[in-house]
Design brief:
Length: 138
């Protein structure tokens, strides 16, 4: 280097080195943002799945074989199909028939995130029931 400054070749080498560092930094930041988005989406799906399980615990698939509920995080939709029954229930201790008909259902559940529109599915099995006999006073 002479006393008057950098040569054009030295300036070009510095620009190439700086560009390579910036490109590597950009690639690292881009992968970090993508990973963050995937983590957030997985967290939202997990929370919506918990809400769906809590909802299914209250749904009687014999009376509501299909439906849809809108939550803040997204929509939960289900379709239930009987896989066994319906049949008369019986009391496990006395062996007498109960007041209910019961069936086992397979429930196909679809989750749709409101924020991204992503969908996910899972299958659950639940019992459905309906009261068929009424005794005096009940």
């Amino acid at each position: 280097m002479n006393a008057r400054g950098f040569t054009i070749l030295e300036a070009l080498v510095a620009i190439v080195v700086a560009s390579a560092v910036c490109l590597a930094l950009y690639a690292w930041m881009n992968s970090a943002i993508i990973t963050l988005d995937k983590s957030r989406s997985a967290m939202l799906k997990s929370e919506l799945m918990i809400q769906a399980e809590n909802l299914l615990a209250t749904v009687n698939p014999m009376r509501e074989p299909d439906g849809s509920v809108q939550f803040v995080l997204g929509t939960v939709s289900w379709n239930a199909f009987p896989i066994e029954g319906p049949g008369d229930g019986f009391h496990p201790i006395t062996g007498a028939y109960s007041d209910f008909r019961v069936a086992l259902f397979e429930i196909d559940v679809t989750l749709e995130l409101a924020e991204t529109g992503e969908t996910d599915q899972f299958v659950s099995r639940r019992a459905g029931w309906e009261r068929t006999r009424f005794r005096d006073g009940f």
